[in-house]
Design a protein that fits this description.
- The protein is an alpha/beta fold.
- It has a single domain, classed as Rossmann fold.
- Helix content is 27%, strand content 28%.
- Strands 11-10-9-12-8-1-6-7-13 form a nine-stranded mixed sheet, with helices on both faces. Strands 2-5 form a two-stranded antiparallel ribbon. The chain has a two-stranded antiparallel ribbon with strand order 3-4.
- Helix 2 crosses helix 5.
- The chain is globular and about 65 Å long.
- GO terms for molecular function: electron transfer activity.
Length: 250
């Protein structure tokens, strides 16, 4: 069984983003980039399924600039077998629907039984690509996965929902999006990092899949959140209650 894993290059989660002075977007100059944390979990889950003998091949896929090769090499070092980069020009923002259409094109070529991706990317928090891929392919989907197991020709996904956990059984081929508590991604060892340099990495373009990536949305302004105001001290509970009522929260 082949698994297709989608990864994205984003600002490292330890870095505090800075907004450009003109408010046109986030400043990416000299900022550390890394693999989207939810996508790391997706890669780890595919590797664990391979270690169980369920998955025979893992193909890592990314849509992004040339430097996204570094992100794909990380996935290869973790344990993916080969990678595909659909390269776009620097500064190009590809919207979720365009990404989903490209992944559909790759899936049509590769015919994976399982597509695994993070539930969302931490740069735009769209939480759309996995669901759109499932819709475009007409495949069942298990989103916000907390636990994944393959049983014959089906995949059982325990999902995180508002009321707790929901378990669904999906006929393969299917699409799964991963949540934080699914697993703990491994660190790539030095020998595997060296081996990853020789693993196949194909470079494609959106045109190869007949996808127009021209933006349909326009960002008007990006701004910092308001600075949190300082708190005040009150002498007793009665004053606290009065203050809360004054603020309209009690």
């Amino acid at each position: 069984m082949k698994a297709l894993v989608c990864v994205k290059r984003v600002i490292d989660y330890n870095v505090k983003p800075r907004v450009k002075a003109d408010g046109s977007g986030v400043d990416l100059a000299n900022v550390k980039m890394s693999m989207n944390p939810f996508d790391e979990i997706a890669v780890e889950e595919a590797i664990r399924l391979k270690e169980k003998g369920v998955v025979s091949e893992i193909v890592a896929v990314s849509v992004g600039v040339a430097k996204s090769q570094e992100t794909l090499r990380t996935a290869l070092a973790m344990g993916a077998d080969r990678a595909v980069l659909v390269q776009v020009e620097d500064g190009t923002e590809v919207e979720p629907l365009a990404v989903a259409k490209i992944i559909k094109g790759i899936a049509d070529e590769e015919q994976p039984a399982l597509i695994i991706t993070g539930k969302q990317a931490i740069d735009d928090d769209s939480n759309q690509v996995g669901q759109m891929v499932a819709a475009l392919l007409g495949r069942p989907q298990g989103t916000f996965a907390n636990e994944v197991s393959v049983e014959g020709d089906a995949v059982v996904v325990k999902r995180e929902i508002d009321g707790g956990l929901q378990t669904v059984k999906l006929a393969l081929p299917a699409v799964v999006t991963t949540d934080l508590r699914l697993n703990e991604p491994r660190y790539a060892s030095l020998p595997n990092i060296m081996k990853a340099k020789s693993k196949p990495l194909a470079t494609k373009s959106p045109a190869d899949y007949g996808v127009d990536i021209a933006p349909r949305l326009k960002t008007l302004k990006v701004s910092e959140p308001p600075v949190r105001s300082a708190g005040i001290k009150v002498p007793d509970v009665d004053t606290l209650v009065a203050k809360l009522k004054e603020m309209g929260v009690a």
